[in-house]
UniProtKB/TrEMBL annotation:
GO terms for molecular function: acetate-CoA ligase activity. This is Acetate--CoA ligase. Pfam families: ACAS_N (PF16177), AMP-binding (PF00501), AMP-binding_C (PF13193). InterPro entries: Ac_CoA_lig, ACAS_N, AMP-bd_C, AMP-bd_C_sf, AMP-binding_CS, AMP-dep_synth/lig_dom, ANL_N_sf. Its EC number is 6.2.1.1.
Length: 633
C-alpha cells in the first residue's frame, strides 16, 4: 500500500483518478474480509448516497486484532503512559488486547448490548477506552465517544440524539494536577436521558461515586463474572461493509452538534491505507499520536488505522505541560518513539517555554513527524523541524476532517517534497478542487478558493445520525455534486495545497472545532444576556481565540464578575474548551436593516484591524460600530 518514490506517487495518483474503483479494490484486497464485495462503489452526491464495497462482510476488529495474532501476538499494540510519570506504564500485546476486547465484549453482551445498539463512551485516556471502543465494534454495537472535557449537558444532548442504551465511563480522570469526576458528570447528564439502561464504570481515579442499583455496575466486577463463566472468547459479529461503525459528534455553523456517521468497510480501508502510506509505517516502529480518542484523530490514528497495520502505539493519558513542558520529549525518549504525530497548538505551546525544555533530551529515535488540526504556521514548522526533528525528519502535515475519516491532503513521508505551511498534495484516491463563491471551478495554479472534493473516497461520512437532510444541506448542497469542506485553500504555482482556515462560522481553537452559534446559545442562556455574537481572533498558541460581544443592558456593578459568570455558563453548557477568551460588553450589535449581524465587521474588530472595516453603509445603526471599536479588547 506504500508508494516509494515521488514518480511512483504521481503514477499511482493518476491511476487512482482514472480508475478509482480498480485502485480502491486493490487496496481493499490488503484487508481481511469474511466475504468480498459485489460492487466496489455506488454513489451520488445529490442525495447523497455513498456505498463502498457493497455486499462485503467483515468485522474491523478481526483486522485490528485477530489477523496479527499468529505472527505478531507478542508485538506491543498499546504502550500506555499514565498521567503521573511515577505511576507504572502498561504494555498490551496484540494477544493481550485481543483477549481483553473479547472479555469486555462479553461484558457488554451480559449487560444487554446487541448489534446496532448505540453505546456512549465517556472515559479517560486509558487502555480500557480503546478496549471499550473495540469491544463495541466486536459485537456490532455503534460507539459514540464523547471527549472527556465535555459538560453534562453536551453529553446528554449526544446521548439523546443517538438514543444510547448503555454508557461506559470511569469514576474519574487525571489531567495534569486536575481530577475530573467523570461518573458524577454522567449522573448529571442521565437525569435527562430515558434511554440509558446500564452504566459500566471503570475504576481509575478512586474518586467517590454514587452507584445506582440496577443501573450502574463496575467494570471490574463484570469482568470477574465473565472470568467465572469462562467466557473469554467472543466471535466477531459479521458486519455489512455499509453498517454503521460509529457516530462522532462535531460542531458546525448551526447551534446543534451533528453526529457524523462512519461505516465499517470503507473506514477500515481508508484509515489503514492512509496510516500505512503517509507515515510509511514499518514493522517494529514505535508510533506516538498525542491526540485523545475522544476526537476523530484518536479514532482513526490511535485506534483503528494503526491497529489494522499491526503497529505499536504509545497512548498518553496526561497533558504535554505536566509535570513540566518537557513531558512529550520524555515520553519520546522513554519509549524510543520513531513517529511523533501531534498538533500545531501543542508545538506552539511547547515552543513558548524556550529551548531549555528540549535541551539534553534524546531525540535520536525520531525519524518522522506529523501534524494535524489546524494550519502549521512556518515559525512552528521550522522549530519542529530543527529542535525536534534535528533537520532529519519529514513533517507530515495532514489535512483532513471528522467527516473525511482520514488524511486527505498530506505529504507521504520521505516521498513528497515538503514546503513549510503546506499540506502539499492529495493522497491517491483524493480529488480536490477549488471553487469560487458561485461554485465555479477555479482551475490552474497560483489560485485560491473554497476547497471541495469531487469524487467519493472510502472514509467519507455517510450521513449525519438521524438527520440525512442535514448532511445533504451542510456538505452537498452548497455546490451541486461536490463535497464542500468548509475550508479556504490556496493552490500555489507548483500545485501545492495550503489550507487557510474555515470560511464558515466554525472556529478552530487549539485544534478543537467550535461552532460560534453553539457558544452564542450558551452565552444567551445567562440571565442578564440579551444577545451575543462570537467570532474568532488570532491567538499565538491556540491558533484562534474566542471573542464574544455581549449585550447585557442591566449590567451588575461588578462587570468583571458577570464576565466570569458568563464564562462559567459556557463551561457548564458546552465545556471549558469553548469558554470565551475575551468578553466585551456592548450596547448593541452591528446589524443590517434586515436584522442580520454583520460578523465581518466584528471579526475585523476582534482581529484589531479596525482601519479596514469595509462598507458599513448597510448598517441599521453605524454609531454602534464606533462604540464597539472604542471598547475593543
Ligand atoms: C478542520 C477539521 C482532522 C482531525 C483534527 C480536526 C482544520 C485539520 C489541518 C491541517 C490546516 C487543518 C480544517 C478542517 N484542519 N487539519 N493539517 N492544516 N487545517 O478535525 O475537528 O473535524 O476539524 O480542522 O479547518 O476543516 P475536525
Amino acid at each position: 500500500m506504500q508508494v516509494k518514490s515521488f514518480e511512483e506517487y504521481q503514477q499511482v495518483y493518476r491511476k487512482s483518478v482514472e480508475q478509482p474503483e480498480q485502485f480502491w479494490e486493490d487496496i481493499a484486497n490488503n484487508f481481511l474480509w469474511k466475504k468480498k464485495w459485489d460492487k466496489v462503489l455506488d454513489w451520488n452526491f445529490k442525495e447523497p448516497r455513498i456505498e463502498w464495497f457493497k455486499g462485503a462482510k467483515l468485522n474491523i476488529t478481526e483486522n485490528c486484532l485477530d489477523r496479527h495474532l499468529e505472527k505478531n501476538g507478542d508485538t506491543p499494540a498499546i504502550i500506555w503512559e499514565p498521567n503521573d510519570p511515577h505511576e507504572d506504564h502498561r504494555i498490551l500485546t496484540y494477544q493481550q488486547l485481543h483477549d481483553k476486547v473479547c472479555q469486555f465484549a462479553n461484558v457488554l453482551k451480559n449487560n444487554g448490548a446487541k448489534k446496532g445498539d448505540r453505546i456512549c463512551i465517556y472515559m479517560p485516556m486509558v487502555p480500557e477506552l480503546a478496549i471499550a471502543v473495540l469491544a463495541c465494534a466486536r459485537i456490532g454495537a455503534i460507539h459514540s465517544v464523547v471527549f472527556g472535557g465535555f459538560s453534562a449537558q453536551s453529553i446528554a444532548d449526544r446521548i439523546k440524539d443517538a438514543e444510547c442504551n448503555i454508557v461506559i465511563t470511569a469514576d474519574g480522570s487525571f489531567r495534569g494536577t486536575k481530577e475530573v469526576p467523570l461518573k458524577s458528570i454522567i449522573d448529571d447528564a442521565l437525569v435527562q436521558c430515558q434511554s440509558v439502561q446500564k452504566v459500566i464504570v471503570l475504576t481509575r481515579s478512586h474518586t467517590p461515586v454514587s452507584m445506582i442499583k440496577g443501573r450502574d455496575v463496575w467494570w471490574e466486577d463484570e469482568i470477574k463474572k465473565v472470568e467465572t463463566q469462562r467466557n473469554m472468547e467472543c466471535p466477531a459479529e459479521e458486519m455489512d461493509a455499509e453498517d454503521m461503525l460509529f457516530i462522532l459528534y462535531t460542531s458546525g455553523s448551526t447551534g446543534k452538534p451533528k453526529g457524523v456517521v462512519h461505516t465499517c468497510g470503507g473506514y477500515m480501508v481508508y484509515t489503514g491505507y492512509t496510516f500505512s502510506n503517509a507515515f510509511q509505517y514499518q514493522p517494529g516502529e514505535v508510533y506516538f499520536c498525542t491526540a485523545d480518542i475522544g476526537w476523530i484523530t484518536g479514532h482513526s490514528y490511535i485506534a483503528y488505522g494503526p491497529l489494522t497495520q499491526g503497529a505499536t502505539s504509545v497512548m498518553f493519558e496526561g497533558i504535554p505541560t505536566w509535570p513540566n513542558a518537557g513531558r512529550l520529549w520524555d515520553i519520546v525518549e522513554k519509549y524510543k518513539v520513531n513517529i511523533l504525530y501531534t498538533a500545531p497548538t501543542a508545538i506552539r505551546s511547547l515552543m513558548s517555554f524556550g529551548d531549555d525544555v528540549v535541551k539534553g533530551k534524546d531525540f535520536s529515535s525520531l525519524t518522522k513527524l506529523g501534524s494535524v488540526g489546524e494550519p502549521l504556521n512556518e515559525e512552528a514548522w521550522h522549530w519542529f523541524d530543527e529542535k525536534i526533528g534535528k533537520g532529519n525528519c519529514p513533517i507530515v502535515d495532514t489535512w483532513w476532517q471528522t467527516e473525511t475519516g482520514g488524511f486527505m491532503i498530506s505529504p507521504i513521508a520521505n516521498v513528497t517534497p515538503l514546503k513549510p505551511g503546506y499540506a502539499t498534495l492529495p493522497l491517491p484516491g483524493v480529488q480536490p478542487l477549488l471553487v469560487d463563491e458561485n461554485g465555479k471551478e477555479i482551475a490552474g495554479n497560483g489560485v485560491s478558493g473554497n476547497l471541495c472534493i469531487k469524487f467519493p473516497w472510502p472514509g467519507m461520512l455517510r450521513t449525519t445520525y438521524g438527520d440525512h437532510e442535514r448532511c445533504r444541506t451542510t456538505y452537498f448542497a452548497t455546490y451541486p455534486n461536490l463535497y464542500f469542506t468548509g475550508d479556504g485553500c490556496l493552490r500555489d504555482e507548483d500545485g501545492y495545497y495550503r489550507i487557510t482556515g474555515r470560511v464558515d462560522d466554525v472556529l478552530n481553537v487549539s485544534g478543537h472545532r467550535i461552532g460560534t452559534a453553539e457558544v452564542e446559545n450558551a452565552i444567551n442562556m445567562h440571565s442578564s444576556v440579551v444577545e451575543s455574537a462570537v467570532v474568532g481572533y488570532p491567538h499565538d498558541i491556540k491558533g484562534q481565540g474566542v471573542y464574544a460581544f455581549v449585550v447585557c443592558p442591566n449590567l451588575h456593578d461588578d462587570s468583571e464578575l458577570t464576565k466570569k459568570d458568563i464564562m462559567m455558563s459556557v463551561s457548564r453548557i458546552i465545556g471549558a474548551i469553548a469558554r470565551p477568551d475575551k468578553i466585551q460588553f456592548v450596547s448593541g450589535l452591528p446589524k443590517t436593516r434586515s436584522g442580520k449581524i454583520m460578523r465581518r465587521i466584528l471579526r475585523k474588530i476582534a482581529e484589531g484591524d479596525t482601519a479596514n472595516l469595509g462598507d458599513t453603509s448597510t448598517l441599521l445603526d453605524p454609531a454602534v460600530v464606533e462604540e464597539i471599536k472604542a471598547g475593543a479588547l
